[in-house]
């Protein structure tokens, strides 16, 4: 009978140890689950940030294209304006450039500070 009682005591102790180990495993699994959830949220935030950066990059690329087109148009307009203005001649300009020099060049010279 004493042997049976000792076996029951050891079985009770073993069961208590098993229950304690199960609680520790349950706690660890809970921590892993919480960490996985936090990591999932972090990955989602990174994904959103990358999407926003992609959108901004596309907008910037579109703006660069628009600016390049505008610069090209302005260059063309400036060339046309230079051509149109170059046909004008000033008659007698005292101390100015010789007759026949395009007005734009004379105007540039007149604007230079001595």
TrEMBL record:
<keyword id="KW-0488">Methylation</keyword>
<protein>
    <submittedName>
        <fullName>Putative methyl-accepting chemotaxis sensory transducer</fullName>
    </submittedName>
</protein>
<dbReference type="GO" id="GO:0007165">
    <property type="term" value="P:signal transduction"/>
</dbReference>
<feature type="domain" description="Methyl-accepting transducer">
    <location>
        <begin position="2"/>
        <end position="57"/>
    </location>
</feature>
<dbReference type="GO" id="GO:0005886">
    <property type="term" value="C:plasma membrane"/>
</dbReference>
<dbReference type="Pfam" id="PF00015">
    <property type="entry name" value="MCPsignal"/>
</dbReference>
<comment type="similarity">
    <text>Belongs to the methyl-accepting chemotaxis (MCP) protein family.</text>
</comment>
<dbReference type="InterPro" id="IPR051310">
    <property type="entry name" value="MCP_chemotaxis"/>
</dbReference>
<dbReference type="GO" id="GO:0006935">
    <property type="term" value="P:chemotaxis"/>
</dbReference>
<dbReference type="GO" id="GO:0004888">
    <property type="term" value="F:transmembrane signaling receptor activity"/>
</dbReference>
<dbReference type="InterPro" id="IPR004089">
    <property type="entry name" value="MCPsignal_dom"/>
</dbReference>
